[in-house]
What we know:
alpha+beta, 2,3-Dihydroxybiphenyl 1,2-Dioxygenase, domain 1, eight-stranded mixed β-sheet
Amino acid sequence: xxxxxxxxxxxxxxxxRQTAYFLCTAFGFRIRGQGGPQTGLPGQRxxxxxxxxxxxxxxxxxxxxxxxxxxVGRHGDGVAVIALSTDDAQxxxxxxxxxxxxxxxxxxxxxxxxxxxxxxxxxxxxxFTLPGIELQENQERDDxxxxxxxxxxxxxxxxxxxxTSKYYQDVFGFNEIFEEYIEVGGQGMDSKVVQSPxxxxxxxxxxxxxxxxxxxxxxxxxxxxxxxxxHIAFRTSDIIAAVSTFSQRGVxxxxxxxxxxxxxxxxxxxxxxxxxxxxxxxxxxxxxxWGQMYQIFTQxxxxxxxxxxxxxxxxxALTFGTKNIKALYEAxxxxxxxxxxxxGNDA
Length: 347
């Protein structure tokens, strides 16, 4: 069995058309296909979106007992299926079940919380197809500001981190490549990063420290009602152009104090991207033994303030900007405080 990468993500959402409109208008995705009862997908409507090599499947349930309806009722809109491409879907399914995954039929196996995995095997000549999805010609311009899914950040309840990491190591053959405890403003969290052997699939796993003050991870777990994907990181080759373009289309990004950029030259080697450009667009920068990376996070795209997105540009760096965690936490605290002031916790 060989895991080749993230084939696509399937979101369960209350209104697939509305979500697609936002992603297409704000982030430049385009509709590549659609499906529903008339195409062999009973009880649902689905839209397939693409930007670069990123494929998102948006599914809304049409009946009360559809999995998408039940998922949205419990968690709100979010990532419900992480589809993994493999060289042998049937063999991979059997091997994963043998190693301890729960087989769910039709190429689906258990993941974490209510999120599951779909195993996909593609031939080089077939292109990107999915059962029940009718592809459509779309001549709209593809900005190609997004390239691939860089990693997924996953929040799990306190006490589940080690077991979740072990599950992906023992069952999927991933490697645990990084672990760290981070404390910010009285809040604490543990994190572990698991990655497929060829580095094409990366999950950053995070759990809150219950001995510390409840914080953003606890907030996510409460509003999401359990483990789930907190954010999706899209890789780009030009983060300044991407942030500028998406901001003009209405995407809200987290702000960063100007003082953050005053100290960059002291803690980093010469920065590849002009510091004033980073300051203007609130882009964070970090470096490791292999190089530098640039990242920025959107404001939450969900009324529950759960799921948000990340843009990341890598200049050789292989890690995930842990030195920027404090800046991210402070920015998220300002966003949450502003939302509470504007409309209260029920906004």
